[in-house]
Design a protein that fits this description.
By secondary structure, the protein is mostly helical. The protein is about 75% helix and about 0% strand.
Length: about 50
């Protein structure tokens, strides 16, 4: 069983690709989400 643990290494770089792409995009999307949420809350309560 322990000898097969070395075979999992080639699949791990492929799995790291998606989180690194998301971590690059997420900081740019976060202010947009905050502005959109603030707009919806402001329109609901203050009628902008």
């Amino acid at each position: 069983m322990t000898k097969n643990l070395g075979n999992a290494k080639p699949s791990s770089p492929a799995r790291e690709l998606a989180p690194s792409l998301f971590s690059r995009i997420a900081p740019a999307l976060f202010p947009i989400a905050v502005v959109a949420l603030g707009y919806l809350v402001g329109r609901q309560f203050f009628g902008f």
